[in-house]
Design brief:
It contains ten helices and three strands; from the N terminus they run βααβαααβααααα. By secondary structure, the protein is an all-alpha fold.
Length: about 300
């Protein structure tokens, strides 16, 4: 990235244009972050603690919880610190680092959700060969691939940026975010926006298309099950994942897969909060409320503690 101008830091607007909401916003973000740490940390602990959860599905769920912990930690503490700061400036290098970390984690989560859908397809449509197809080495390879591909795509996107800044350094956002950063550039950003669209196609639309096809196959397999109880059991194993996918991809696609205007709207800023803060908090809650195995693991831990 070419930083040929004198711009060396950026001012994050955050909640400062709504001063009457600062205390409320700080409280909500703090509670959300603590819930994210507690929920995802508990999920990781339960999966490690209970041998009954040592299956491919829960292996990927543990990875998802770890991603959510990292993703929340990459943005929410800074939003809390800047909430009551008069001039919440962020250096150019820290801004780029935050953009890279956030994109890598978000991309990895997109790919991991698609992998989890594949796991459910195999479990429901080919249960007899499930343990062979989704063996331990295969699961590790799939999880590692999601991290490796996300890192490669993020590097490709950030290294392709060629931005010049002409003095404007105010980002209407809670954190440093790539779309808000591009809107500050005075150079032609059409190529950068095209790169975001292309990268978004590989990280959002293709995995989302794979998810849709996966659930078509799952629905077909479920409808072939003769007993109503069997159909309900098969569907229940996918309902939590489907809920998480709807929330995650709905917010992500509304942010990144649309034409970008030159103005940074407050609407996009608050959608980003939902995407980056509430989603990591909701994921373990959704899985724990809808999953008998997780509830049973919680009961075992409570029984040992008492």
């Amino acid at each position: 990235m070419d930083n040929a101008t004198a711009v060396t830091e950026f001012l994050l607007v955050g909640i400062s244009n709504y001063p009457e909401w600062r205390s409320t916003f700080f409280t909500l973000v703090l509670l959300t972050y603590l819930s994210t740490l507690l929920g995802n940390g508990l999920m990781i602990f339960l999966i490690h603690f209970d041998p009954h959860l040592h299956t491919p599905m829960y292996f990927f769920l543990g990875n998802l919880s770890f991603l959510d912990l990292c993703y929340g930690t990459a943005s929410m503490p800074q939003a809390l610190v800047n909430c009551f700061s008069t001039h919440p400036y962020l250096s150019y290098s820290r801004c780029l680092a935050q953009v890279g970390v956030s994109l890598t984690l978000a991309t990895a989560e997109c790919l991991l959700l698609a992998i989890m859908a594949y796991d459910r397809v195999v479990a429901i449509s080919n249960p007899l060969r499930y343990s062979v197809v989704m063996s331990g080495p295969v699961c590790v390879w799939l999880a590692a691939s999601s991290w490796g591909i996300s890192l490669a795509l993020t590097c490709m996107l950030t290294l392709s940026l060629r931005l010049r800044f002409c003095g404007a350094n105010v980002i209407n956002h809670f954190v440093c975010e790539i779309l808000s950063l591009i809107k500050l550039a005075c150079s032609d950003t059409s190529l950068n926006e095209l790169m975001i669209l292309v990268t978004g196609t590989f990280t959002l639309l293709l995995p989302f298309g794979f998810l849709l096809l996966s659930y078509v196959r799952i629905a077909t397999a479920v409808l072939r099950i003769r007993s109503a109880q069997g159909r309900l059991k098969a569907f229940s194993t996918c309902s939590s994942h489907l809920t998480v996918v709807t929330i995650f991809y709905g917010a992500a696609i509304s942010m990144y897969m649309k034409p970008q205007s030159r103005s940074s709207s407050d609407k996009d800023k608050f959608i980003s909060v939902f995407y980056g803060a509430l989603t990591p908090m909701l994921n373990p809650l959704i899985y724990s409320l809808r999953n008998k195995d997780v509830k049973e693991a919680v009961r075992k831990v409570m029984a040992k503690v008492s």
